[in-house]
From TrEMBL:
It comes from Ahrensia kielensis. GO terms for molecular function: shikimate kinase activity. It is an enzyme of class 2 (transferase). Pathway: Metabolic intermediate biosynthesis; chorismate biosynthesis; chorismate from D-erythrose 4-phosphate and phosphoenolpyruvate: step 5/7. Keywords: Amino-acid biosynthesis, Aromatic amino acid biosynthesis, ATP-binding, Cytoplasm, Kinase, Magnesium, Metal-binding, Nucleotide-binding, Transferase. This is Shikimate kinase. InterPro entries: P-loop_NTPase, Shikimate/glucono_kinase, Shikimate_kinase/TSH1, Shikimate_kinase_CS. The keyword Metal-binding applies. ATP binds at G28, A29, G30, K31, S32, A33, R134. Its cofactor is Mg(2+). The keyword Transmembrane helix does not apply. Monomer. Belongs to the shikimate kinase family. The gene is aroK. It catalyses: shikimate + ATP = 3-phosphoshikimate + ADP + H(+).
Length: 200
């Protein structure tokens, strides 16, 4: 990490207080991979919602879908994320569908800041093709599924506090871009709060 990013990381760590930085976005956007790097750079715990769900259910995500169906997975996901959000500061990689739930979105915004890792279809498909474990993509035409999810979900992910375009860069480069975006957002928010309290 260069000096400027280190400085920005320290500033983010300072401004985040005990809140959660929640990464949202589609499968393959890099929420887990970049989230882990980000947590390391900020010296914060890293929590992956999918891993927490697997621990709670004592089975992999794909098996939860198979055994109990998607609605039950969504209920479990919402309750696990609600619990995780009680223990900031931390970096949380949400599962791809979590932020689509309005109650989950609200609770994320009550307890922290959301950052959408957006990405183009080709990049997502390259990334997800490496692992065949994602239940929603177990389909003869995973690209069509992903395009449909882009249509349905991008307007909702856009409600996140921050958007960072996930590009074909290294994980470290992406983590630096995310740190800069967080620093800009949190600094602007803190200046705004300072101004409004001076006017009060
Ligand atoms: N910037 C990057 N450079 C290279 N590989 C990356 C990058 N970001 C992510 N990857 C790789 O792409 C794959 C998908 O990334 P990751 O698992 O982090 O996505 P995700 O957003 O957590 O998806 P899901 O919602 O399915 O959990 C992983 O193999 C990861 O290592
Ligand atoms: O986009 C989604 O709906 C999902 C993404 C993954 O993170 C997992 O939470 C699960 O495979 C569902
Ligand atoms: Mg993930």
């Amino acid at each position: 990490m260069d000096m400027a990013t280190k400085k920005r990381a320290a500033n983010v760590r300072n401004l985040i207080g005990d809140q959660t930085i929640a990464l949202v976005g589609l499968m393959g956007a890099g929420k887990s991979a970049i989230g882990r790097k980000l947590a390391l750079a900020l010296d914060l715990p890293f929590i992956d919602a999918d891993t927490e769900i697997e621990a709670a259910a004592k089975m992999p995500v794909a098996e939860i879908f198979e055994a109990y169906g998607e609605p039950e997975f969504r209920r479990l996901e919402a309750s696990v994320i609600k619990r995780v959000l009680e223990s900031g500061p931390q970096v949380l990689a949400t599962g791809g569908g979590a932020f689509i739930n309005e109650a989950t979105r609200d609770i994320i915004h009550q307890n922290g800041v959301s950052l959408w890792l957006s990405a183009e279809i080709d990049l997502l498909m390259t990334r997800v093709s490496k692992k065949a474990t994602r239940p929603l993509l177990k389909n003869p035409n995973p690209r069509a599924i992903m395009l449909d999810l882009i249509d349905k979900r991008y307007p909702i992910y856009a409600k996140a506090n921050i958007e960072v375009l996930s590009e074909d860069l290294t994980k470290d480069e992406m983590a630096c871009i995310v740190i800069k975006a967080l620093d800009d957002h949190l600094s602007a928010q803190s200046n705004q709060n300072g101004k409004s309290s001076r006017h009060a």
